[in-house]
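Reference record:
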Amino acid sequence: MDETSVLVEVADGYRVLTLNRPDKLNSFTGAMHRALKGALEAAEADKACKAVLITGQGRGFCAGQDLADPEIQPQAGDTPDLGDTLEKNYNPLIRKLRALPFPVVCAVNGIAAGAGVSLALAADVTLAARSASFGQAFVKIGLVPDSGATALLPRLIGPARARAWAMTGETIKADMAENWGLVWKVVDDTDLLTEARTLCSRFAASSATGLDAIKRAFEHAADTSLDAQLDYERDEQRRLGRGRDYEEGVAAFMEKRKPVFGDRP
């Protein structure tokens, strides 16, 4: 495994994972997928880790798949199996990000293209530098957006914008991405990592059970009716209301102090 393709920083209560192929705009290879998978698994195994921040080294966040990666080149006389690449690498990555028991923050510091956009979509909170841009150019090479983009984009920006963006293959700037709801907010380039780290520190001081439950609740709501979601919320409040974090949170409120929440259970 090329561990240098993803840099890992263990901070106080969270981890920073930096995609580290700046000369290739941090485009994905099989080796980088394996390094990122290992970094995410290590973060999940660390109960003191209550958030993960993903960003890119250099002038790009992630330009999608590196088409020159030897691992995706077909044998002589064969045609490429792009579905196999998704099945082995991208689909497990998106599923892992959505299933992690803590928030994933993406700081998009430059170009995000193809699966790089999907990586940002799969995060719980995405910040973008003012100079960042987002591209969905699959149509230009006769492909369909993948890595969850056709499911996540309509939820975030609406079906009309999602279809038009995918079919035109245009690149949009950060301000438009914010206006559409593709990202939470845009910040000045020099403030991007500071803002993202501050957010992760805030999550690190928050209730881990509460953050995980919020993440699950929104996932559940995406595929259910309002009536079923009302029942889900009732059951979750019943469960959480019997937990230690609720007890500590209420006690801190009554005593006019900051709550002290522990590590993830």
The beta strands are 6-10, 15-19, 52-56, 60-62, 104-108, 111-113, 125-129, 133-135, 171-173, 185-187.
